[in-house]
Structures are given as C-alpha cells and as structure tokens.
Amino acid sequence: xxxxxxxxxxxxxxxxxxxxxxxxxxxxxxxxxxxxxxxxxxxxxxxxxxxxxxxxxxxxxxxxxxxxxxxxxxxxxxxxxxxxxxxxxxxxxxxx
Length: 96
Fold this sequence. Notes:
It is built from two helices and five strands; from the N terminus they run ββαβαββ.
C-alpha cells in the first residue's frame, strides 16, 4: 500500500469446496521480498478456514508457474496457443 493507493494484492473466491485464486499481483519493485509467498500463505489459511479441500489458479507462460510450483501447486491442465500468452497452465494445491 502506498498511502491510500492499492498497488498489489490477491483476489480469491470459494465455492463447492474449492478456493480459486483469481489474481495475485505485485509490482516489480515489491517482488522477491516474500510478499507473494505471504499472500499465498494467508490465502491458504483462509481456504482452510472455509473448509476448502483444494486451491486452484491459472497462470500463463510468461507469468509465475515456477513460483506456484515452489508453493505446492501442480499443473492439472493446459491450453496451448501462440506465445507469449500460451501455454496457459491450470494449477491446483490439494489441502490435506
């Protein structure tokens, strides 16, 4: 947060036992400082509080697949197409 301006964050929703991360966005200057990891931790805590059994999201080839894999997400589907927006990966993390 920069004063009263939101510069990044995480948007998610839950339904039918799943927790969908719709967007996780941080400006370049805030990356690499653990903020994205912290947001994912908070999201997982909220998913568990809501009794969700999995979390899921999608990311594209130019985005953060490796970041999500480091946090326990695995690819369960893929849509192919022209670069740089494809492939588009659908990822999930099962909550035990």
